[in-house]
């Protein structure tokens, strides 16, 4: 005969039975030693959890920093500057460089018109409106020098950005690899960490847990979250030197938060409703 999935409730609530059992344990002769042992176990759990968490956090960061600074970046910079004649990794970098150059060019033209003598200002303005190519011929040598200097600065800037993006890709791979190794070799400590985090989370009040749920959902899938996802995705793509495709970003922002919202609601319905029904009830009361 199959076991019942849900245990039947007796005449006496189980919470009262557990409280009575704890009270009986305190009356036993070895109750003090039992309390001391529980305290030692709790202290050991906290120490191991904190140490494991710091290790999982700090080691990948250190691996990323040292591998990128002393190994990857010098190697990529040497290969990129000697074996490659490219400056940009993709066309989106080139478009950003052109926008920056055009903006500086407009600034130079504006400064030129402002600095012209009062007697020549109206004439220069009319010539600029009628013959745009003639305004280039009257540029001073200093402005021309600044323009060439700006082109050189933009080339250096985006060349470094390309090297940085390639270095980030390999450094992130090393960090992920080290993080995976830590998960494999620190499996017992991670189990203790998960137990400690679950115990700490469930020990919170229902109101606090509901507040954290609302805060997390509003940050990730709230009505104001699309702009945050766009900034995050743009920074992530630029970090790895990937093309910043606006169509892909719009599609991602339109679908991924919806997927997260669906998964979150399913988790509340499937798991949290069984673990802590009072938290779910408080959560629904707070959002209504």
UniProtKB/TrEMBL annotation:
Keywords: Antiport, Chloroplast, Hydrogen ion transport, Ion transport, Membrane, Plastid, Plastid inner membrane, Potassium, Potassium transport, Transmembrane, Transmembrane helix, Transport. Pfam families: CemA (PF03040). It is found in: Membrane; Plastid, Chloroplast inner membrane. One of its GO terms (molecular function) is proton transmembrane transporter activity. InterPro entries: CemA (IPR004282). It is a multi-pass membrane protein. Contributes to K(+)/H(+) antiport activity by supporting proton efflux to control proton extrusion and homeostasis in chloroplasts in a light-dependent manner to modulate photosynthesis. Prevents excessive induction of non-photochemical quenching (NPQ) under continuous-light conditions. Indirectly promotes efficient inorganic carbon uptake into chloroplasts. It catalyses: K(+)(in) + H(+)(out) = K(+)(out) + H(+)(in). Signal peptide: none annotated. The gene is cemA. This is Potassium/proton antiporter CemA. The chain crosses the membrane at residues 46-66, 211-229, 249-268. PANTHER family: CHLOROPLAST ENVELOPE MEMBRANE PROTEIN, CHLOROPLAST ENVELOPE MEMBRANE PROTEIN-RELATED. Belongs to the CemA family. GO terms for biological process: potassium ion transport. One of its GO terms (cellular component) is chloroplast inner membrane. It comes from the Eukaryota.
């Amino acid at each position: 005969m199959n076991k019942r999935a849900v245990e039947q409730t007796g005449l006496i609530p189980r919470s009262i039975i557990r409280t009575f059992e704890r009270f009986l344990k305190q009356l036993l002769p070895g109750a003090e030693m039992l309390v001391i042992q529980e305290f030692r176990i709790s202290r050991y759990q906290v120490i191991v959890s904190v140490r494991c968490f710091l290790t999982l956090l700090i080691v990948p960061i250190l691996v990323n920093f040292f591998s990128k600074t002393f190994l990857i970046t010098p190697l990529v910079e040497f290969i990129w500057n000697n074996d490659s004649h490219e400056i940009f990794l993709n066309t989106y970098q080139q478009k950003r460089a052109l926008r920056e150059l055009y903006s500086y060019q407009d600034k130079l033209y504006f400064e030129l018109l402002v600095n012209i003598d009062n007697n020549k200002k109206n004439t220069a303005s009319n010539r600029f409106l009628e013959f745009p190519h003639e305004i280039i011929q009257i540029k001073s040598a200093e402005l021309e020098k600044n323009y060439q200097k700006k082109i050189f600065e933009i080339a250096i800037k985006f060349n470094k950005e390309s090297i940085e993006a390639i270095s980030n890709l390999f450094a992130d791979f090393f960090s992920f690899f080290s993080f995976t190794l830590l998960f494999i070799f620190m499996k017992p400590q991670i189990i203790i960490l998960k137990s400690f985090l679950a115990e700490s989370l469930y020990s919170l009040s229902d109101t606090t847990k509901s507040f954290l749920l609302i805060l997390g959902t509003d940050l990730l899938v709230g009505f104001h979250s699309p702009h945050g996802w766009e900034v995050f995705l743009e920074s992530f793509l630029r970090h790895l030197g990937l093309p910043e495709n606006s169509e892909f970003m719009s599609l991602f922002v339109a679908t991924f938060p919806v997927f997260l919202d669906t998964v979150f609601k399913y988790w509340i319905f499937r798991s949290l409703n069984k673990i802590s029904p009072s938290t779910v009830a408080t959560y629904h009361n707070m959002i209504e």
